Amino acid sequence: FRSVIGALGTFAAATAVSVATLTSHPTELRWQSAAGVGFVLSCAASSFAILGLFVRFVKLRFRLLDSLSANSYAIYLVHYGVVSWLQLALLPAAVSPQAKFALVFAGALVLSWSVASAIRRIPAVARIV
Fold it and tell me: Can you give the pTM of this predicted structure?
């Protein structure tokens, strides 16, 4: 719970500095810089607090998410090409941008995950990724 207390403390401090910057010192670079650094620290502390809470209290396991976790680095390595080619393939399609987004997102997830899972079955690749 120390991380949660730390996140709340950094959020309060960042908020106080931001309010002081906006109300009393809107043009001073050092106040603007302090507000920016406070925001970054608050975001980092909040991220660590959330991760800590999940590690501490969430004990559920799902095979699908375990597979996603195991393949995440390989997905990261191959997704750029998959996304690029899917976007290129959908350029001439006469559908809305939202539909293109949904198709590219779903296609990239399925294809990248499948490719990652397949290449991780190669022993030499599995040792690297």
Answer: 0.61
Distance CA 35, CA 65 (A): 37
Residues 6+ apart with CB under 8 A from 46: 7, 10, 11
Number of H helices, E strands in the chain: 5, 0
pLDDT per residue as tens digits for the range 60-108:
889 999 999 999 999 999 999 999 999 999 999 999 999 999 999 999 9
Angstrom distance (rounded) from CA 112 to CA 128: 17
**pLDDT tens digits, one per residue of 31-53:** 999 999 999 999 999 999 999 99
**Residues 6+ positions from 34 with CB-CB distance below 8 Å:** 17, 21
Q: Which helix (H) or strand (E) holds 102?
A: helix 97-119
